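FYI - complex with NAP, inputs then prediction.
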Amino acid sequence: MTTIAIIGLGKMGKGLAKRLAGKTDLIVSTRDLAAATAFAATLPAAHVTVLAQDAAIASADVVVLALPYAAALQAAANPALAGKIVIDISNPVTADFSGLTIGHTTSAAEEIQARAPLAHVVKAYNTIFADLFDLPTSQTASVPVFLAGNDAAAVATVAALVALSGFAVEQTGGLDAARLIEPVGMLNIRFGFGLGRGTAIAPQWLELAA
Ligand SMILES: NC(=O)c1ccc[n+]([C@@H]2O[C@H](COP(=O)([O-])OP(=O)(O)OC[C@H]3O[C@@H](n4cnc5c(N)ncnc54)[C@H](OP(=O)(O)O)[C@@H]3O)[C@@H](O)[C@H]2O)c1
């Protein structure tokens, strides 16, 4: 069974943990281990472990950086990530959520990959608002999680994880596609907050009959 470590137990980390608990070996970690333990007690008990960040990373096959981009960058410098799959879910937004801090010629995912050159970084979940994790799986099963990554085996592992978490997969190619997916995440934030459409929305590509 693949061991997944979720680093960061904010809205996204908790949401993903709730969707994965009981379906795979799960490690949860945050700076406040007492809070992590209290949260873990709310999950189906089997296969959930609470560990500090270094131990969580060392024990996992797949590490989800459910952290703000700047903290994810810091975490990515951990040499224990070598050989592991790292899932970057971040939207590198400005403090006022009005725009992205990087883009065009790089992306958060590629910067994280540069900090963890021996890891296999996969971009995922950045267009999924945390509130979607609380919906019944039947409502999200066709909602796409856009994936980008350079290592085919790592992308396949993350695709299986996405399915396990109750979402669909939309492949976008190599990690440089994160330069495109991150602006889609920003557009989603614009729709959700700036234009008042709320957080029960998600982007999806339509295929129309020719
Ligand atoms: N919220 C969404 O709907 C959404 C959607 C798509 C993508 N994302 C992305 O997902 C990531 C997490 O977002 P979120 O909404 O879950 O954030 P959040 O609710 O603010 O939670 C952030 C988590 O990161 C931890 N953290 C913050 N600074 C840290 C640091 N310097 N070192 C270690 N841990 C740190 C926090 O720990 P403490 O509790 O100890 O402070 C908390 O567990 C972000 O990159 C965001 O762009 C969010």
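Helices lie at 11-20, 33-40, 53-59, 69-76, 108-115, 137-140, 152-164, 178-194. The chain has a mean pLDDT of 97.
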